[in-house]
């Protein structure tokens, strides 16, 4: 069989110490598939692999990806702009109406805004400085000032 006809799937493998890792299996190598407590299992020789069943399960495995909203996991190293007015993160510095974006849950704005600003600064190769407003205290009183 040629390589271009091979079928592959990303699955979860659980190591002996309980760590979950992502791996890719060749579906043509699967001996059989079964289900255990709603988890689909792929058996290849003496190895067992599990199908990824939901986004939160994937989020437990992927480093650097965080849920900014219920339906997504976002790679922090790819975010270039945070639009807090519309609750969106963009993957380019100057987004346009056709730019791809991920949504940010309004309930998470305050919690993640400082983290997002730091990652955006890093991703755009800019510095991030904070100045505290005199009339407020704490994180709300900080304004970011980007310098190239």
Automatic annotation (TrEMBL):
Gene3D superfamilies: LytTr DNA-binding domain (2.40.50.1020)
Domain of life of the native organism: Bacteria
Span of domain HTH LytTR-type: 20-117
A GO MF term: DNA binding
A Pfam family the protein falls into: LytTR
Cleavable signal peptide: none
Name of the protein in question: HTH LytTR-type domain-containing protein
Organism: Cytobacillus depressus
């Amino acid at each position: 069989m040629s390589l271009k006809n091979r079928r592959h799937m990303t699955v979860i493998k659980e190591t002996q110490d309980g760590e979950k890792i992502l791996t890719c299996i060749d579906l043509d190598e699967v001996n059989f598939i079964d289900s255990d407590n709603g988890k689909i299992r792929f058996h290849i020789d003496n190895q067992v692999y599990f199908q990824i069943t939901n986004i939160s399960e994937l989020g437990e495995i992927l480093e650097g990806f965080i849920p900014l909203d219920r339906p997504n996991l976002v790679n922090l190293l790819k975010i270039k702009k945070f639009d807090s007015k519309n609750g969106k993160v963009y993957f380019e510095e100057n987004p346009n109406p056709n730019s791809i974006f991920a949504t940010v849950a309004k309930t998470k704005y305050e919690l993640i805004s400082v983290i997002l600003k730091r990652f955006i600064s890093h991703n755009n190769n800019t510095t991030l400085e904070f100045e505290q407003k005199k009339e407020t205290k704490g994180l709300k009183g900080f304004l970011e000032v980007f310098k190239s």
